Amino acid sequence: MVMGETGSDVSGEFQRHAVEACRRRSYHLIADQVLKTSSAQRLVDALVNRLRPDGLILWSPAADDLHLIASLIEAKVPYVRILGDPRKGATIGVDASAAADAAFEIARGSQAKRIIYARGGEPAWASAARSRSLSSVVKRSGAAVVLETISAQDFEAGLSLGAAEAAPDRTAFICDSSGAALGVNEALRRRGVEASAIICFQDTAALRLTSGHIRRQVLPVREMAEAAISQIVGGDRPPTPQSFASRFL
To answer: Does 220 sit behind a cis peptide bond, omega within 30 degrees of 0 on the bond before it?
Structure first.
């Protein structure tokens, strides 16, 4: 069973691969969209005691609900967390620091003299980790690059950011959200200029269909789904942390 926010592009792709992994093992996968987990015990009663699943795959926000996790441990139900805050326990996810390093290298390779990090993605812990990593890699590199962090998490904020940038041809934009990246891109298109680079930590259909030149972070979703099902079927208790490398396309 998958619990959490199940309507995004990435979670939908994860579910498809998880279904395939389940079928190969003669299991069924059930997805339940839970946006707020205010009553962990009620959820456990309704979903676990009645359906009696072999295990739960917790997606955000369920992956970071410590009360829900405690209830699952008490009920002795195997679980795995996907893309959860690693400070809250074992999770299957990607290396946020390595992704930030890769984004910086793309920005530096574009000959940018200034990097603007449009911060504001969800979950907040991942955005904070990226911000720390970007600051660290800029300092370690010794490159003559200025890093600025600006709050911009949606299309309108991206539009404002792109419209206000004085020298976009010497600026690389690194965005948490696809909305902000698309907004920056549209603002620059209206001005008839291009950025050194636009890089996004999300991979959405909107980015793939409308802005192929925006570099997007692609997660190894198939591998993550396979790892999650393997842990559930194998009865891993407690769950085993697994970190995968992502890439930018």
So the answer is: no
> Cα–Cα distance between 154 and 121 in angstroms, integer?
9
Contact 197, 172 (CB under 8 A): yes
Enter the DSSP assignment of 53: -
Q: In terms of C-beta density within 10 A (0-12 exposed, 13-18 middle, 19 or more buried), how is residue 13 classed? A: middle
Decide: 223 and 44 in contact? Cβ < 8 Å. Answer: no
pTM comes to: 0.86
The number of C-alpha atoms within 13 Å of 240 and in the hemisphere containing its C-beta is 12
**Selection from 201, 196, 18, 229 nearest residue 107 by Cα:** 196
Q: pLDDT tens across 164-209, in order?
A: 988 888 999 999 999 999 999 999 999 998 899 999 999 988 888 8
DSSP 239: P
